[in-house]
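Sorry, I am new here, but would you mind making up a protein's amino acid sequence and the tokens describing how it folds?
***
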Amino acid sequence: MKYLFANIFILLLIVNMSSCKKDNKSFEEKLLSTTELIEVGSKTGTYQFGVLSNQNMLLETDVDWITLDTTELAKGKRQVSFQVADNKEDERSGIITVKVNENLSTQVLVSQESGKVPVFYVSPEGNGDGSSWSSPTAFHTAMEKATSGSTIHLMEGVYKPVKTIRNGDASVESDKTFEVSKNISIIGGYAKDAMIGAKPNASLYKTVLDGNLASGKQAFHTVTITAIKEAESRVYLEGLQITGGNATDRSTNISINGLNFSRGQGGGVAVGGSEVHMKNVEIINNKATADKGTVGFAAGLYGFGSANVTMENCKVNDNENTGNNGGGVWMHTSNLTAYNSQFNRNYAKGTAGGVHGYPNANITLYNSEVSYNSNTSYGAGLYLRENSKAIIVNCLMVENTSTSKNGGGAVMLYDASSVDIISSTITGNKVAGPGAGVYRRSKVNNLTVINSIISGNIQDNASTDVDAYSDNAGIPAVLKSSVIASQVYGEAGTLVSGASFNPGTMLSAQYIPIGSSNPALTYGLTGSSLSNVGQTYKPALDDRIKSDKNANERTQTVMGALIK
């Protein structure tokens, strides 16, 4: 659009210059706007639209809840910026007028949603007004009527998308999705006989958002989150199972809020620039394929555009990319923080079987699992690339596998990335190449390991559990109070003389350190020492660092994710 805008402007100048040469009196004033309508949220916010004119412009509005940054703009291609005030009443609208003179002007309608916050009750066959469980409405109806801050309660059952994504193609059935365009709460897990005041129980009352459409086709994204970030607001999802999406046709995009949502990125969930919190959400059995057009990325969840995603007691499991990179989660210039969550048994025919950060991603995992993932290239478990960072605390990363000789089983760092592994256990991972535990390659990749066990992984005979390509071999890792292969490092970061670790006899089948002469029981850190470590980070790490993966207090010097 910006190039079209510029070209129109150039053509106007050429036409006017040509006209002036023939007759100065034939000069024609021009004024264009990029839009006629802007829909805004109910909360205070700042918005803008583009204008183009070959004359200076005057701006005005007919309502007091719209405040313009300026009332004058110089000729050329400009941005009109304005703020809206909180709306606590019904939906309202106002007009911004941009004019060159009394005869030449353009108007933009600003529509602000209602500040009243309705609550909705929904069932799979609902056709009521949604005011109670006795009169539930349809899910898509509740989504349309909801305003920022609304809560939608979902009765157990299976829901399938019936609405085309905003700006999508109604003739393309796979463009149907559950689009969350506002900062609202969606809570599933209610019984069929629920009464007002009932509490959700997602494990008993499965609430499934299913991208498998009635025609046999699949949604490109079962859920698409497009809500704009607003102060003190977020999208909240709880008690849902999200399944049946198929990310494919990656070369085609749908533009929403200035972001391009690719049809081939994020089969289960696509998050573009939103603030999202998920609790007890399962993203399972989604795909990324070459079924249509260019093969897709990220079968499970794809976050991009500076999205912030928080997961609590969530599962991103059993998703499959049959032809490209990204099996479970992919964060692109975005942030993921997960607590007590699983990223297990995902597959990618390429890189990043479990969790992918690329580029400029920040990933923080507490008390979580990245296990049993598989792929055919770098990073079967966690793959960080191009200035991405991760902090891994109290995590199990086991039994990830790759058939590639490129290296990188549980953790792969590539191209100026970094990872801090704290009180975690990385074992049983298997790759055909080097570094089945941790592998570093390309530019400077920084590795810190504290109070962790990285041992018992299977890799190329010339390699070891923690390894680096020649371009990273000279970059020292920080290894403290940890076991690396058979070697033991003390709190000062030096090798403990005479101490040796044997994963076959010193780790139980449940990955708990065992044995009377086990250095992982002697040279680790207590919870108080780990708390001090956490305080050295900015921001400080969560208090979970003081306990193990199962919230057992660390009173003794035990390494790894689990102490009992």
